[in-house]
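[job 0412] stage=fold_complex status=start
inputs:
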Amino acid sequence: MTSVVHKPIKHDSAPKHVAGTARYIDDLPEPEGLLHAALYLSERTHAKILKVDVSAALALPGVITAITVDDVPGDPDIAPVVRGEPMLAQGAVEFHGQPVVAIAAIDLPTARRAARLVKVEYEDLPAILSITDAIEKQSFLLPPLGLKRGDATAAIAKAPHRLKGDLNIGGQDHFYLEGQASLAEPREDGDVIVRCSTQHPSEVQKLIARVLGAPMHAVTVECRRMGGGFGGKETQAAQFACIAAVLALKTARPVKLRLDRDEDMIITGKRHDFLSRYEVGFDAEGRILGYELTLAGRGGWAADLTGAVVDRAVFHADSSYWLPDVIITGLCCKTNTVSNTAFRGFGGPQGMATTEYVIDEIARYLNRDPLEIRLANLYGKDTNNVTPYFQTITDNILPELFDELLASSDYKRRRQEIDTFNAQSPYLKKGLALTPVKFGISFTTTFLNQAGALVLVYEDGSVQLNHGGTEMGQGVYIKVAQVVAETFGISLDHIRITATRTDKVPNTSATAASAGADLNGKAAETAALEIRGRLAVVAGAMLGAAPDQVVFANDCASAGGKSATFAEVAHKAWMERVSLAASGFYATPDIHFDRANGRGRPFYYFAYGVAATEVLVDCFTGEYRFTRADLLHDCGTSLNPAIDLGQVEGGYIQGLGWLTMEELWWDDKGRLRTHAPSIYKIPTARDLPEDFRVQLVSGRANPANTVFRSKAVGEPPLMLGISGWLALKDAVAAAAGTRQVHLDAPATPERVLLAIEAAKRTATAVATDMAAGT
Amino acid sequence: MSEPVRFVSRGQVVTVAPDVPHTMTVLEYLRSRLRRTGSKEGCAEGDCGACTVVVADAGPDGRLRHRAVNACILFVHQLDGKALFTVDDLADGETLHPVQQAMVETHGSQCGFCTPGFVMSLFGYYKTHDKADDSSLKDALAGNLCRCTGYRPILEAGEKMYDGGRDDRFAPQEAALRKQLSGLARERMLDHSTPEGSFLAPRTADELAELLHRLPAGENWMLAGGTDVGLWVTKQHRVPRSIVYLGRVAELQQIIDHGDRIEIGAGVTYTDAYQSIEKLHPAFARMVRRLGSTQIRNSGTLGGNIANGSPIGDSMPALIALGATLKLQSKAGSHEMPLEDFFLAYRKTALQPGEFVASVTVQKPGKDSHVGIYKLSKRFDQDISAVLAAFHLVLEDGVVKSARLAFGGMAGTPARARKAEALLTGQRFTPDEVEPAVAVLAQDFTPMSDMRASAQYRLLAAQNLLRKFCVEVSSGKSISAEAAE
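[job 0412] stage=fold_complex status=done
writing structure:
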């Protein structure tokens, strides 16, 4: 029996959130002499910079300084992986909106007005804007990743049936509600402390040190909480933190840089849009025999994390299906657009969505329910259970999850009802789709799978907890606190959760890849266990028992019918000169990947889920409404079912938004025109499916030795949203009266209506051909 | 001479410092001057709701009206004579307000950044509704974006907040607050000036006309709700010499039912005009419920939407289809003109210097009238239309006696489809006979492609909407993917 973990405990900041007292970067008390920064953004898409004139900006009263890349004292390159990303544009601008100049002024309106007075002379260069253009011109950021098993080409050639096609999947803006923000304060000895809304304090620290030309020990980065991250503050926060730090050191004053929403959406990277090209061979039962797939992701102007994102797309292109002969290639396209970055799912959703689409195409070709084709291809438990990267799946629970959801969602009866409805309803059509999720947990860059924690017990029995995980709303702080409280047998109110700081736990990984609670929970548990071991010796002596007989529970240490409070034991330990502090460290075991040969075990385990979504479409306009969704998601034995339910529901809606209404639109000059919530639409409360039934899988502990046998939950549920998009495809087919339909994502009302029209035309053309006997 | 702006907060009259510039928003004032940082900036354009606050004043019946508004595009001076509630004000020490408590209990916050805005939208709802119902609750939250939760727990909080009844700690103080507010009433026009410029709030139409006549030409803005003008400050960083606020001009706040027509003052907010719009036609009211958000409708006015001359303002096609006329007024007097003649070109109207829109008058449709108003956008709530179609036919024995087909998003101004109207007139309105009019829409309009929609979709959707209207009129049944009301 546990008393704290596995309980639906509220988010530690909830009372502060609702009272408005939870502080974000821009809410912090402003230090004396604070300056505000603003940026001048490139007005060209790809151009040489001939001249930068900041004289008019500097002449504005209240402006203190203006910097370009030439004012960076150290190395201006702030790329996280592959070099080539200057803090401010260097020599040339590579996309429309790239920051070129940073201004510091006494207040924000002055700084922003000054930024508009900067004059830059350009000489235009040819620009590559689209994925197809990049492929044609062989414009790539990195070499491709390929996975290969057997001979896919031969298998397709021999297969009884074949299909090929292209699919466009749009990107997505993170739209964290709190924009990027950093506050840098110079200290003595050239040191600087930067409070930054970031998922990756250690990397921000490293890059600030790099641009300042200082060792890492001179830089401290702190993040108490973010107003949302979703991957958008993994690498993207660093640029603004670095600019603030450089300005702070130059002016010897504190500097805050907080982006306006439009600037944030223009400057920062997004989810990669993809062009997928597939050819698949299959038998009469819809079983895939051979599969050739190219996944081309738009990286934008710089590499950022594109290599790893495209890798994860490739790793997840199997979705949940056994692919006997397969070849998958991932391309990292270089274009003159914003550099795309991490976003919840990290490429996985694009790979998975592609193959779910292909499965749907096979089903329509064979005139079968897509559900049957999914079941026919599903990974087995003991056979057909090896991925295209040769990892054997040992924890597959999808067959059970399909059974459970088919029953709880009443799928088969509703499928028939929908077909009947569609036959009788000329202008409104329904669609239904049920899709699985299998998501690999671990950073595919193996060395990142490490974490540290610092647990401090004070002699009054209160505990301060620090670890490398950052809090962006996902509840990693409360989950790790629950682990520590459980380990010490104390209630949560004994524990103070503190801001993530690089001077408490060094060299941490980003809070990303869903792994925050997995990694930091284990690290904190390790530290707490070490302290508990020392306390057991002290308590044993106090209680007249052997240390291994001491039980820590109910805020007490107990043995042999006697007990002492946790505070008494802590105080005694201090008196006896026993250390009450420990750092903990964790590295995920048993994972490895050989990139050159496309073989290994990149994932420690998989998280699973299934979703069935139903939609109603207006065939006059393409407008639609999701009428029902049934979700079933696997969190192992959840550390906190209330927090995890929130992740599942929120992830699903975010996935649904990505594939339906959220549309990024660039004009022919390469300018992003959807850079504000007035024109970039994320779901609202009314977009929630009308009948929304969400359940966590119960009673299935993670077979892998994770913290309290829980599973990671941040990213996997996002891909449950794929069911909504394919439900729309189902409705489009019903509306067009044909089974051959094409539906790119995002499936906006416009795409839905045009897909119906296109499918009708194709059907008419086929009918005419057949009538003509051709 | 410059006068201080006064409003009520936390039971006290707050006098705004004389140096607060005429363009300072309530959000900036709260965060930078009062250091009350609970209200957040998420977009600075009234589209995310993180800055939501509640403004209360005394309505025509003397009772307090609590309205959720976006503080990011509301100028401090617009608070003059009103009461302000922010997220920082709700809890009583450690004791959370029922709205806040419900949000905690339902796990309605994750990252917490949007939460203060949701709390205030829920507070506005709590103050104006006896209990929650799903549809109006979603209306109340349509202007608040949350990227974390998926909204389910927030909607649950909207119901749970009534668990302890409706009487929060503010309820017993309402009489005192009303008294305080009446003490802030102005005898004269508000004129708050700093070296940067002036904020002027005339109290009568004559005062307004005189002011517009007197002010030198140039950068002087007329401000109604500020849902557009606010962005000129927050996004374009423009600073006018003067802001002339219409929100205190008594005549502009009136709604007059003339029997066969309704006259709505240009300063009436969408929220206050809603019942009259519903009387004009339920389809018009349904569309208005999708115009902006609750916060936007609490600030924005019909007059402002007309005067800014946007080609995609949602109301214009509906008003044109219903045959609306405008009353334009200046020091020289007033005159009327049909609304459709007001729009000259993209963002260009017939409004002359010194002139203002005083009211819009709309005929009530007769019993032979058939009205259909359709808004198309990527998202159902709070989105700008790709196409807005408004149809008004008078049918006698199934034959079209007169036809007014007005569209937004199809041209540089809101415009009528004259060729299609001509083809419909005198014909029966059936799915077969409507087709020539559907086809000729391609000659009436050459829409453009932009981030909201392609030209192809705009035209096809416009055509399909006419077909849909015809099917609906013929069958007497509405066809919609949206939930039945």
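[job 0412] summary: Residues 345 and 413 of chain B are 6 Å apart (CA to CA).
[job 0412] exit 0
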